[in-house]
Amino acid sequence: MCGIVGAIAQRNVSDILLEGLKRLEYRGYDSAGMALIDEPGKGISTIKTVGKVANLVEAANKKRASGNLGIAHTRWATHGKITRANAHPHGSSGRVSLVHNGIIENHEPLRQELTAAGYRFATQTDTEVIAHLIHQALENGEASLLQAVSAATARLQGAYGLCVIDRQQPDRIVVARCGMSLVIGDGIGGENFVASDPLALGQVTDRFIYLEEGDLAELTSESIEVWNGGRRVKREIATLSGKAAEMEKGAYQHFMQKEIFEQPQAIRDTLSGRVSEEKVLEEAFGVSAGKIFDKVKQVQIVACGTSFHAGLVAKYWLESIARMPCQVDIASDYRYRDIIVQSGTLFVAVSQSGETADTLAALRYASAHNRKHVATLAICNVATSSLVRESDFCLLTMAGQEIGVASTKAFTTQLTLLLILAIVLGRRNGLASEDEARLVRDMNGLPDLVDKTLQLDKEIRKLSKQFSDKHHSLFLGRGIQYPVAKEGALKLKEISYIHAEAYPAGELKHGPLALVDSDMPVIVVAPNNDLLDKLRSNLSEVSARGGKLYVFADEGIGLESDRSCKVINLPGCPEVLDPILFTVPLQLLSYHAAIIKGTDIDHPRNLAKSVTVE
Ligand code: F6R
């Protein structure tokens, strides 16, 4: 979603800001803007455009934008339409300019109050009230920009990552964090930076300070000072590296494609250090994890979107391997429920980004009930994310940066870790060591099996042509494959815009069968398990009604293609790995269907990579 970049240096920073915005494009946005102060006394120059960052670059080149101090933003509309005026930065009286990530919940009463005080609003955004509040504080005698931002933010309810400049104090940027992540980039020799994601600053520094909740910071070209609760605080500098290569597509056409093909390595990296040849290495969960696991009697998983589907798969593993009850909830629902927490519950939040607003809120809600929860565990792909920092302990997926908006390698690595979690909990609940050894051996073979499955790419590309004129589709799976079908349907709809619905195959005759005709492709995942015979009956139900079946089947079941059924065989695999392996061809199908439909695969319409607002 929205992205922030800021820079202060002894050189022109406009290219740094624009490059930073380009690096944040993956988060999803609809307009972009930049404000610069060139020479003291010359005023703030602002450029904004609707659409891609490339439009802003063009406008900036035309204007020969330059300045030693600047802020920039990609906006994902929440309050007010997608217009140039509503794009950030927003200003007040030509003096203050700011960019904002997040949502100000009490913007309406503040707008009325500020209007009564004589401020004229130029936008429909919630953000503009902040600019006027800061201006008002400065005009009312707050000596420094830092003090004015502090006074203004004290009036705000909601979430914000803010980056503010003042024409009359053109040697500093003030930033504030509440509920949205912000990171300061420590530059070399007279320059400093700020961004909502360190990725935006990879070209200028690898040294970062992660701001904490409630932090205010003042950056000059020579100094970084952080304040919290009115007191100066010290924040550690972390060094990050190796990000640059992940930003390149290399030989691939899209990041999504690259990330699908990175899955064998991502799973290998996720297993590394977590399992030996035949055992899960429990220490990988942290020193105190063993004692926590001893107390767990059931598991509560909370997540959104694709990560939620990972949780749904994990429920089956936790039941069958750990013999533990497991509840899985969508975070946006869980956070508002009157939850009943059974003692001995382990709370697990699953998230690629670790910044998803609803998942974070659910974690905070669960923490407020922590007398009953044994602990909170984050399964996450971003070590420095808010979710990881706010959980009692974490297990990181080692998927590497995921840039394509549609989540792929994050999902399969989440599943890898959730299976490991089921094994460590199972150990305490009767899982024999020889069963653990078999499961771990199976897991160690997973990267090669995924590799083999990826070789179906060509065949799936050919098959996807049959989706060129399709507008609707059904995905079917039974048992643990139902969440896999849901994930396949989500992938297809989000990047190809083909309407896709997933059903447990046994539900077919309870309604969805009415939809089946020759225009409705029915995509089925058919592993070699106890439910196979039942699934075969479901396939017959579809063929009998003229439906066209596309079945991804375990090669061992001997299903053959005919006029109404196209079968694509997957390499045989241990049953426990089915959900991970069967996800891969569905990712490829949606990718190739989207190519045929000609959509913007890495930036599908209306979607953002990191959903940091509710
Ligand atoms: C779908 C997708 C989304 C995310 C969801 C949660 O491809 O990417 O459904 O899974 O927005 O995001 P995280 O996992 O970052 O919490």
Written overview of the protein:
This protein is an alpha/beta fold and 614 residues long. The chain folds into 3 domains: 3-242, Glutamine Phosphoribosylpyrophosphate, subunit 1, domain 1; 249-444, 3-Layer(aba) Sandwich (Rossmann fold); 454-601, Rossmann fold (3-Layer(aba) Sandwich), CATH 3.40.50.10490. It is built from 19 helices and 25 strands. The strands form 4 sheets. An 8-stranded antiparallel β-sheet has the order 3-2-4-1-10-9-11-15, with helices on one face. Strands 5-6-7-8-12-13-14 form a 7-stranded antiparallel β-sheet. It has a 5-stranded parallel β-sheet with strand order 17-16-18-19-20, sandwiched between helices. α11 links the parallel β18 and β19 (373-380). α7 runs antiparallel to α15 and α9 packs parallel to α13. The longest helix has 20 residues, at 578-597. The protein is globular, with a radius of gyration of 26 Å. The relative contact order is 0.09. Fructose -6-phosphate binds at residues 304-307, 351-353, 356, 359, 406-407, 490, 494, 610-611.
Helix and strand layout, with pairings?
Elements: E1 3-8, H1 14-23, E2 31-37, E3 44-50, H2 53-63, E4 69-75, E5 90-92, E6 96-101, H3 107-116, H4 128-139, H5 145-153, E7 160-166, E8 173-178, E9 183-186, E10 192-195, E11 207-210, E12 215-219, E13 224-228, E14 231-233, E15 238-239, H6 255-261, H7 263-271, H8 289-294, E16 298-303, H9 305-320, E17 326-330, H10 331-334, E18 345-351, H11 357-368, E19 373-380, H12 386-390, E20 393-396, H13 409-427, H14 433-444, H15 446-454, H16 457-464, E21 472-477, H17 481-496, E22 499-504, E23 521-526, H18 532-543, E24 548-554, E25 565-570, H19 578-597
Parallel strand pairs: 16-17, 16-18, 18-19, 19-20, 21-22, 21-23, 23-24, 24-25
Antiparallel strand pairs: 1-4, 1-10, 2-3, 2-4, 5-6, 6-7, 7-8, 8-12, 9-10, 9-11, 11-15, 12-13, 13-14
Helix pairs in contact: 1-2, 4-5, 7-13, 7-15, 9-13, 9-17, 13-14, 15-19, 16-19, 17-19
The chain binds fructose -6-phosphate.
